[in-house]
Write a structure and sequence with these properties.
By secondary structure, the protein is an alpha+beta fold. It has 13 helices and nine strands. The protein folds into three domains: about 240 residues, Rossmann fold, CATH 3.40.50.1240; about 90 residues, no CATH class; about 30 residues. The strands form two sheets. Strands 1, 2, 5, 6, 7, 8 and 9 form a seven-stranded mixed beta sheet that branches. The protein has a two-stranded antiparallel ribbon with strand order 3-4. Belongs to the histidine acid phosphatase family.
Length: about 400
């Protein structure tokens, strides 16, 4: 159908054109929940016995956030301030935002660096002249408590371990043969006896040294090119193998469900409560500071995993919008500071997706309790019962404290 020029002009002049256009129902942002990976960090330990860069080379020691990592999370906080300035107050208000981190130094420090960008102190908020940072509450589980939300990979689950070990063993058989020459040399050079595919994770940490310009003491094998492996460098190959090992932990619905099902349930449940108006002491924003394995488990449980690693300071965002009488959910993934976040679309739900459809889509994936997870993990019923009682008690106390905090 093509409108003749005279008719088009007539409609524009008379305003009759507007009757041909369907009314646009504005959508209103009502809730945001996000989870990010911590920033750049030091290795967890000495990458290999002969490594010249010991803990003294790292300003804050093993596993701690670096200056680069702090800047990465500060940038993420500033991005959130720019993006959601219309939605949350520039001043921290406890009734608006709740921030939680795993009980690890790098996640807690990342959350603090994030708030320095999200809530910069200026004007009357400056508690010290010239100081742009201000203390903001960060919540975490008590040391040693199972953390199903921000560090589910640390939860004991024998079934999950068996699934991962079986796949890892198959990969090891293949790559131990394919890269036997390189592995033999690495065993001699690194001090790791019988070097194999299962040692690539520790060697990968040499990349962290290179990022921080720790180059002068690096041995030749770090930069060696291997003609028999398409002239790739040692670290290129190690990085590829480490990625395969990491993705193998989550690349099936069963593995992802066991580890990420509870976290996905948290997002879905909060979305439903927002839509139903049943969230007690509702917040505008819930923010989780966590780890790459946590994001991977969530993404694969959602069915949107892409077999790629999670860069530092990457964030997965769930936005809930009210549109007319309904509620829509949009998932966004930001892993690149140079472009807008990627829409995360499940082909069975679309973008945006209604909250009701999302809840139905993931109804067979989510896990509503620690006991549910442990049953799927194959934990003996009596052991599960003891653990569940303790977890129920701990979660009950935590819920009470959070309720008091929110009130």
């Amino acid at each position: 159908f093509r409108m003749k020029p005279r008719l088009w002009s007539l409609l524009l002049c008379t305003g009759s054109f507007y009757s041909l256009v369907l009314p646009v129902v504005p959508k209103e942002l009502v809730f945001v929940q996000a989870i990010w990976r911590h920033g750049d960090r030091a290795p967890l330990k000495l990458p290999y016995p002969n490594d010249a860069y010991t803990e003294s080379a790292w300003q804050r020691g093993w596993s701690q956030l670096t200056n680069i990592g702090m800047n990465q999370l500060n940038e993420l906080g500033r991005y959130f301030r720019t993006t959601y300035n219309f939605f949350v107050s520039p001043t921290y208000i406890p009734s608006e935002v709740y921030i939680r981190a795993s009980d690890s130094d790098r996640a807690l420090t990342s959350a603090q660096a994030f708030t320095s960008g999200f809530y910069p102190a200026d004007g009357s908020l400056q508690w010290k002249a010239g100081e742009l940072w201000q203390p903001i509450p960060i919540h975490a589980t008590s040391p040693g408590e199972p953390d199903l939300l921000t560090k589910p990979t640390a939860i004991n689950c024998q079934k999950y371990d068996d699934l991962v070990d079986a796949d890892d063993d198959e990969q090891a058989k293949r790559f131990n043969v394919q890269y036997s020459e390189m592995f033999d040399e690495l065993g001699e050079q690194t001090g790791i006896a019988n070097f194999s595919y299962k040692n690539v994770n520790s060697i990968y940490d040499v990349n962290r040294e290179l990022i921080h310009d720790m180059v002068s003491k690096q041995p030749p094998w770090v930069f060696k090119q291997w003609p028999q492996y398409n002239n790739r460098s040692t670290m290129d190959i190690i990085t590829e193998l480490r990625t395969i090992r990491m993705i193998t932990k989550f690349n099936s619905s069963e593995k992802a469900n066991l580890i990420g099902g509870y976290l996905l349930n948290d997002f879905v449940t909060n979305a439903k409560r927002v839509a139903n108006g049943t969230m007690e002491n509702p917040k505008k924003m819930l923010l989780y500071s966590s780890h790459d394995g946590t994001l991977l488990s969530l993404m694969y449980a959602m069915g949107v995993g892409n077999d790629m690693m999670i860069p530092y300071a990457s964030v997965l965002i769930m936005e809930i919008y009210k549109e007319g009488n309904g509620f829509l959910v949009e998932w966004l993934y930001r892993n690149d500071t140079t472009r807008a976040p990627y829409p995360m679309t499940n082909p069975n739900c679309g973008f945006p997706c209604t909250v009701d459809n999302m809840a139905k889509l993931y109804s067979n994936v989510v896990l509503s309790s620690y006991a549910d997870q442990q049953r799927l993990c194959g934990t003996p019923l009596e052991e599960c019962s003891r653990s569940s009682s303790m977890i129920t008690y701990v979660l009950g106390v935590a819920t009470m404290l959070i309720a008091l905090y929110f009130s």
